[in-house]
Write a structure and sequence with these properties.
Elements: H1 2-23, E1 27-28, H2 30-40, H3 46-62, E2 68-77, E3 101-114, H4 118-142, H5 144-185, H6 190-225, E4 234-235, H7 250-272, E5 276-287, E6 298-308, H8 313-382, H9 388-423
Parallel strand pairs: 1-4
Antiparallel strand pairs: 2-3, 3-5, 5-6
InterPro entries: TolC-like
Keywords: Cell outer membrane, Membrane, Signal, Transmembrane, Transmembrane beta strand
Subcellular location: Cell outer membrane
Length: about 425
């Protein structure tokens, strides 16, 4: 009996523990949102496609070191063939005549001995092209950070506004309690209490509106991060971070990788005009074979080393190099435009930071003054010195001052992280 009781108690405690864990609200951090949005985006799968494409291209290029096999055949008819004639006829001696129709089927194997670095350069070019394509993908994925900033800090602002709305509701409820006492004593009109109740209902409407907006923003954030975010999800307010360092965006790395790709293309131009040396073996069957005096079909083979040097690439070498130089200038121009626009954005963002910092400094002072006035107004309302309209005016003024501080505080925090995103630096740096 005792053992059964212990077992039941353990099960009950375990079940309570499970429920308590499930009841815990999910906490989502900004850095975690960046990572989840990146993992959830459909473009992330393209990284694997780029890797496989590069692997296949490199493997194909590397096969240039393998023996190259070709099978050929030809049938020809010649207008004239080699003939053997002597000045005088020799009895019993007759030279064979060669047929004008000739046939040949043969196979040839070529093994590269020296290709001037063509295969090696082609492999390097395929790898570098993959790096460029991968970095282009990183540029697109990095844009997610800006969208995460807008939605994440938008939810934080709604959270703060909901808290402030609850404080306003409490202040109005305090006024309602005081005015109801006067109405009960016959020292105040019922309309005074109705005015406060109307403002109280407005706070309920405002809370409903803010909660609906928060739910919509959470839905958008959930789609980006690939998770089902409930209304109980808590967004952790990120800490203020320093704003030091140079620009380190994926766009800058892309420009560098593109220039490296052009360097390899320039090297490929040099390789193309180098001599090539290879070993070859040719074997076949035809008429005539290697023995020209034999007009019948026969087997034959030839083997040796072949040197080839094509100089036709020299004709276009100057223009090819000019084209590469033009592409370099285009990349340099793109980088200059990117740096210009980025620095322009940073200048504007830094100006906003300074403005918001100054506004926050005055917000605290304004709130302190408004709170003092509201406290005095509450005492005056209780003593019948002022009416409900005067009290509501002061309550609303303090509420607006606090809303302004919330707005400026979240905007400042968002601006800080926008600057960090524009610089291209991680939060943990």
């Amino acid at each position: 009996m005792i053992n059964r009781f212990k077992f039941s108690l353990v099960c009950a405690l375990a079940w309570i523990a499970i429920l308590s864990v499930q009841a815990q609200d999910k906490v989502l951090r900004l850095q975690e949102s960046y990572a989840l949005a990146r993992q959830n985006h459909p473009l992330i799968k393209q990284h694997e496609l780029i890797r496989k494409t590069a692997q296949f291209s490199v493997e194909n290029a590397a096969k240039g070191h393998l023996p190259q096999v070709a099978i050929l055949g030809q049938a020809t008819y010649q207008s004239a063939v080699t003939e053997f004639r002597l000045p005088i006829a020799i009895p019993g001696v007759e030279f064979p005549s060669i047929s004008k129709d000739q046939y040949k089927v043969y196979g040839e194997v070529n093994q590269t001995i020296y290709d001037g670095g063509a295969v090696r350069t082609q492999i390097a070019l395929h790898k570098q092209n993959a790096v460029v394509e991968s970095e282009k993908l990183e540029v697109e994925l990095y844009k997610l950070n800006e969208r995460i900033n807008q939605i994440f800090f938008g939810i934080l602002m709604l959270d703060e506004q909901l808290k402030q709305n609850a404080l306003l509701k409490a202040d109005i409820e305090l006024g309602i309690k005081k005015i109801q006492a006067f109405i009960g004593n016959g020292t105040a009109f019922k309309s005074s209490g109705d005015a406060l109740k109307a403002e109280w209902l407005k706070t309920l409407q405002r809370a409903t509106e803010l909660a609906a907006n928060r739910k919509a923003f959470l839905g958008m954030l959930g789609l980006l991060v690939g998770q089902d975010l409930s209304e109980s999800t808590i967004l952790e307010k990120p800490a203020t971070i320093s704003l030091a360092g140079d620009i380190s965006r994926p766009e800058l790395r892309l420009f560098d990788y593109q220039r490296q790709c052009l360097d390899i293309q320039d090297q490929l131009l040099k390789v193309r005009n180098r001599p090539k040396l290879n070993f070859f073996f040719q074997g076949g069957y035809g008429r005539p074979a290697l023995n020209i005096l034999n007009n019948g079909f026969d087997l034959y083979y030839i083997t040796g080393i072949r040197l080839s040097w094509s100089i036709s690439g020299i004709y276009t070498l100057k223009n090819d190099r000019a084209l590469i130089a033009s592409n370099r200038e285009a990349i340099q121009l793109q980088q200059a435009v990117f740096s210009y626009n980025t620095n322009l954005s940073l200048k504007q963002q830094n100006a906003d930071l300074i403005k918001l910092q100054k506004l926050l400094e005055s917000d605290n002072e304004i709130i302190a003054l408004r709170e003092s006035v509201k406290t005095t107004a509450a005492a005056q309302l209780e003593n019948g010195v002022i009416n409900t309209s005067d009290y509501l005016r002061e309550v609303s003024a303090e509420d607006q001052a606090r809303v302004n501080r919330i707005l400026h505080e979240i905007q400042l925090l968002m601006s800080i992280y926008n600057v960090r995103t524009t610089l291209g630096q991680r939060i943990d740096q």
